[in-house]
Amino acid sequence: MKKIVPLLLISCFFALTNYAQEAKIQKADVYVTGGLEIIFSGNTGLKMSGQEINGGVLRFAPVFNWQSIVNVDLNPRFGLYSGFGIRNVGMIFDVPSEYIDANIQGPVRKKVRSYNLGIPIGFKVGNLHGLFIYGGYEFEIPIQYKEKTFVSERKDDRFSVWFTDRVNLQHSLMLGVQFPYGTNIKFKYYLNDYFNSSWGDNHAKMKGTTLNYNQISGNVFYVSLNFNLFKNTKFYFSEYEKKHTFPQS
């Protein structure tokens, strides 16, 4: 995975160089957009005490995921973007029987999530007023963590806490496709473990289990459906589109 970051940066450099050479405008077009994100997440490489398990479950997170984007279009076919966002990120997994607390009778399922503040940086390639692809990197800070414990499919416990060390600062790579009229699809992969490896024996164990949080490792990934992320409706239904149309060569 570490090799992916240099390759992505090199690809961005060559794309920027090629499109900059073809550009015939005198200045970049800068504007702000924003929109909602509906997330379907899973996990990969999930391990408990070094043992790989197959207990990952698809997680649906329709709320609350908001992104505000500052767009810098260098020409009609290449642009950069940054901004900030808040999103609901987490995972669902079943705890193997050997790690269930002796006082618990029945199978245990855990649902964990954090609200993260994110700062993305990325690029856009294609018809920036129509269909294009985009990609980049995002740094996320978890600000609010919630954990639920289900025993025999019934909720047994839940708690939430602000600014906990249970969860790592998150680094992720993303790749997406922007369709005309506002809708796009994005794939994101988190490069580091969800849980903090320093949360060990001197901290509370995970409720309903015999595990410390540092005994659980795994990466989150998700596919999301985004609305009006790069193209607000103004681009198609008002004079705002004309204002941001590049001069024709």
Question: What is the compact description of this entry?
Answer:
Helix content is 11%, strand content 53%.
What does it look like?
By secondary structure, the chain is mainly beta. The chain has one domain. 11% of the residues lie in helices and 53% in strands. It contains three helices and twelve strands, in the order H-E-E-E-E-E-E-E-E-E-E-E-E-H-H. It is elongated and about 65 Å long.
Please give the alpha-carbon distance between the first and last residues: 41 Å
Radius of gyration from CA coordinates: 21 Å
The counted number of beta strands is 12
Secondary-structure content class: mainly beta
Unreliable spans are none
Biggest sheet strand order reads 1-5-6-7-8-10-11-12
N to C succession of SSEs? HEEEEEEEEEEEEHH
Enumerate how many helices there are, as a single number: 3
Largest sheet: 8 strands, antiparallel, barrel
Integer count of domains: 1
Strand content: over 45%
General shape: elongated
Task: Provide the residue-averaged pLDDT.
Answer: 86
